[in-house]
Amino acid sequence: MSRSPMIVRTLPALRRALDGHRAKKATIALVPTMGALHDGHVSLVRLAKRRAAKVVVSIFVNPAQFSPTEDFSSYPRTWKTDVARLAAEHVDLIWNPDVKTMYPAGFATKILTEGPATAGLEDRFRPHFFGGVTTVVGKLFTQCRPDMALFGEKDFQQLRVITQMARDLDLGVRVIGSQTVRERDGLAMSSRNVYLSTEDRMMAPELYRAMKKTAMRVRGGDDLKAAVVEGARLITAAGFVLDYFEARHARTLAPIKSAKDGPIRLLVAAKIGNTRLIDNIAI
Ligand code: PAF
After folding, report:
1. Is there a contact between 187 and 264 (Cβ–Cβ < 8 Å)?
2. Quick one: which of 200, 180, 176 has its CA closest to 190?
3. Domain segments of the chain: what residues?
């Protein structure tokens, strides 16, 4: 039986509801999302339910993390099915502010991040992105004051940036990363996968295959740089236009030269047709 979660759209109502839970000493987990929920989000919700007494899911398509040329207006919005999915998972509360609530007239503050946010990966191709993400996530943390917040590893740099921000700003929120959920053919689940044409959808899993082959070569003792160059060749040969394919230190995201400098994370961003995909795996 699914019970509809409480849907909250104003800050006073959010504070009332969450203060009520806190007064009863209930732990609170937050799963921040932009809606268009898929099985990856559901796995975060399930993990949150195992870790905390109350689960809050925020649904807010954050204009601040899109550049004027990106897909803010066409970003998939699937409110009804999102609510049904969250009801089926027994989520306690959906925090669904509108843009004016999140960014009232005169809003003039941004969280500025360095370290993993300037690693030269997503930030190189989407310079506006992390300023927008950290500002909204910082606000979500102070609005909801959760004990913990859960994010997918698919956005690996984002996870590192938010972890660093929570620590640096003493936000008192434990940031938990959770494994990427994949389609049967290996494509990482993403709300943007709906943009893929039928042909592009067929080619899209090649990204994961190329990463896996690269990881296998490195684990087998091949030179890291040569394995990454070959992986990039496979990705391009499959029809992608590559933004980056890189081996980085899994915690700092600093470039590394050899497998012994690890733990290593392989990270990729590439376009197939009009769709930009990102993915990553551990070596
Ligand atoms: O990963 C996302 O869906 C978004 O970047 C997030 C963390 C919800 C912030 O808008």
Report:
1. no
2. 180
3. 6-178, 191-282
Q: Which residues of the chain are modeled with pLDDT < 70?
A: 1-2
> Model confidence over 158-196: pLDDT tens digits?
999 999 999 999 999 999 999 999 999 999 999 999 999
For the stretch 109-135, pLDDT in tens is: 999 999 999 999 999 999 999 999 999
pTM of the model: 0.96
pLDDT of residue 262: 81
* Test site for ligand 1: of 42, 65, 134, most ligand atoms within 8 A of the Cβ: 65
Beta carbon of 33 within 6 Å of any ligand 1 atom: yes
Whole-angstrom Cα distance, residue 97 to residue 154? Answer: 25
As a whole number of angstroms, the distance between CA 36 and CA 32 comes to 12
User: In this structure, what token pair is assigned to residue 15?
Assistant: 């504070």
Catalytic residues: 41
Q: How far is the CA of 23 from the centre of ligand 1 (A)?
A: 28
- Position 240: which residue type? F
Residue in 92, 94, 62 with CA at minimum distance from that of residue 80: 94
Provide the CATH number for the domain formed by 191-282 in this structure.
3.30.1300.10
CATH 3.40.50.1970 fits 6-178, yes or no: no
Question: pLDDT value at position 144?
Answer: 98
Nearest CA to ligand 1 atom 9: 133
CA dihedral sign, ordered 139, 9, 190, 192: negative
